[in-house]
# Entry
Amino acid sequence: MIRSSLRISALALAVALGGSAAWAQSAAPAVPEAARAHPELWPRAASPAAMTDSRTEAFVAGLMARMTLEEKVGQLIQADISTITPDDMLTYPLGSILAGGSSGPWGDDKASADRWLALARAFREANARRGGTVIPLIYGIDAVHGHNNIPGATLFPHNIGLGAARDPDLIRRIGEATALEVAATGADWTFGPTLAVPRDDRWGRAYEGYAEDPEVQRSYAGPMTLGLQGELSADRPLAPGRIAGSAKHFLADGGTFEGVDQGDFRGTEQALVDTHLGGYVQAIDAGVLSIMASFSGWNGVKHSGNPTLLIDVLRGPLGFDGFVVSDWNAHGQLPGCSNESCALAINAGIDMLMAPDSWKPLYASTLAQARSGEIPAARLDEAVRRILIAKVKTGLFETARPYEGRFEVLASPEHRALAREAVRKSLVLLKNENSVLPIRAGARVLVAGAAADDIGQAAGGWTLSWQGTGNTNADFPQGQSIRAGLEAAVREAGGTASFAADGAFGEKPDVAIVVFGETPYAEFQGDLDNLDFAPGEPLEMLRRFKAAGIPTVAVFLSGRPMWTNPEINASDAFVAAWLPGAEGGGIADVLIGDGEGRPRHDFTGRLSFSWPGDAAGAPLNRGDPGYDPQFAYGYGLSYSAPAPVGMLSEESGVSGEASNIDRYFVDGRFVAPWGLVLRDAGGELRLGGEARGESPRRGVTAAPADGEAQETARALTFANGGGEAAITGPVVDLGRQTNGELTIAFRYRVDARPTASVALVLGGGRVDLTPVFAAAPMGEWRTATVRLSCLRDAGADVGALDQPWGLATRGAFAVTVEAIRLQPNSGDTACPASGAGAGGK
# Structure
């Protein structure tokens, strides 16, 4: 009864805000009790009074009095630059554009800074020419570890590394530098800070969170918001060189069941408050101008359709006066909605719909819903008012943009020095036996591992492209690889340094530094089933050095803690370097001593995520019952405070062979331990867990492509005599699955007809799929299914298989594939030779 009497409802809040009681009562969607928030349980926060000062309110009221319904609806729609042109603005009065992770000016995601600025200006100029009540666009971009979309901009470590630094002032300064570089290229809004509290490290976005414990988010949210925006003022907009922020992703995006991206938080409301509210109170108090709602849900209800969170809580005790934007087509995941139509999301409290590729039909349907009253006029006005207030505060109605075009701020010496400082402070020393670190002056150093000379791998996802794949060092003209930084520091200390990706050497080195780790990924593709860093060449290299009596330092690049006990055991020193970005010298600053062999900088980083003692990957967080990590939250050695680390257990707790024998390419990633190999007459190219780039010498190439979701597929192009694209991994026994008549299934889209026969290759077995691909409608997604027994009968050794899928041809062919896995035979799958069963659905 007390809870009932105190609860602030959407209806009461609408009245308090001057809205219509009728719209809240009739339009706000109902929410089941399991996902219903109770505002009295939540802490208090408030946007600064300067956000809604009387002068701004009066200005906005005057604008809205002149706006047509079409213009108001347009403010609620955001389009991606890959699907909208400046000329479209002459017809559609949209309120916002964004540059998504793989979008760039006129299709070039590696465009130069001046091209990015030219695009921003083209959109603004077209918008101004449309006529009517001209409202400036707000242009958003994911500048999540610096201005990471622009070649030549400063790249900072990802948030997981910054969390290890435990330095709020560093965060504020990074926000200021990022804002300057974004402003220079014409954007005015970043989708950050990310305030997720990742509780399951298998989640592919774990590196976007500062820590598993919300204490770090609480200490960082305010400084980052103030770094980006500065303090709000009642009498002027944001200062020049500042940009609007967007705290994301509200709420519990880091708490989904089993770490599944866009999944469901299954827990209590109190856990939402205690853990996943994280730094939102501090961001709101600091004046963040927008908040992005999460794809994820709570107890079965997606947040984008939950008014008890978006209205009752966010507009109630949390006191947020900015606007709420949804994530990439998230509205289409709501019941009864599609990407092209969703009144429910707006009525639930979403003010701006991110509709990257569906903006045109969504604008039309939203306009129709506003005309019919399905979206009440008061709700529409409420959303428009919030968006316009944020635009005023961002300074979009001002003509002066003093930092625009000042490209000298991109990777300026000051910003690069700041990034290097951030790298130093983010490093966590897990082991340092026999004081192998710091490396003494005059040492003969071998730098090994391909990752040492790969800035793209050190930078990780959300770097120039969404997944961060396909980048080379040439794409980072401002950057310094880890190799280059180490070599420079060793020479400066009077030593010699050499590099060998494979660890080969002539003269025996005094010490070897091996750099290795995860290859780039972002959301969705980055989800894992376990945390086993699968043994491979890095481990063998470390063991070879150990056997040769060479002291070895391991520098591990990763977006999360991973089970690396064998690698730690094989190393004398082990450094968790996370995803440091483009300033490799920051690692050398700490590893390489001065001319006297003394530390130039000590290790100060401390784990903000618990390091696992096995590879199973079950949630492991400070305070959990039975908490027993390999290295606890807050752990980190230093030169001034050393400690021994004994031999660690090498029992992983998972079986690589027993795990993932039925899923190979899912959600846009190759599921460990499987990877993609491209073969042709010119040799073999191993691409690892993600296909990254192309080689013109090859007869087959692979590139990320959109399938059921963004970049969940791979486009395979066979040319120059063809070749083979195959998924390979450890030897597994699929005899039981074959006897059970399981099928190998995959979705495909024919992009260019085959000029020669195309075979499905599984181990030593081959079946002809030419009729299937030849008959498939061009550009239409279909599913191919072939029984394992068909391939067994065609020669596949299903009892000892290391290649569960492949396509091979000697001609030209283009096909996009996704969702490659084993699945049950539904009864209609025969062998292709019988004329049935391979595709067509």
User: Anything to note?
Assistant: Residues 1-23, 685-697, 834-841 have pLDDT under 50 and may be disordered.
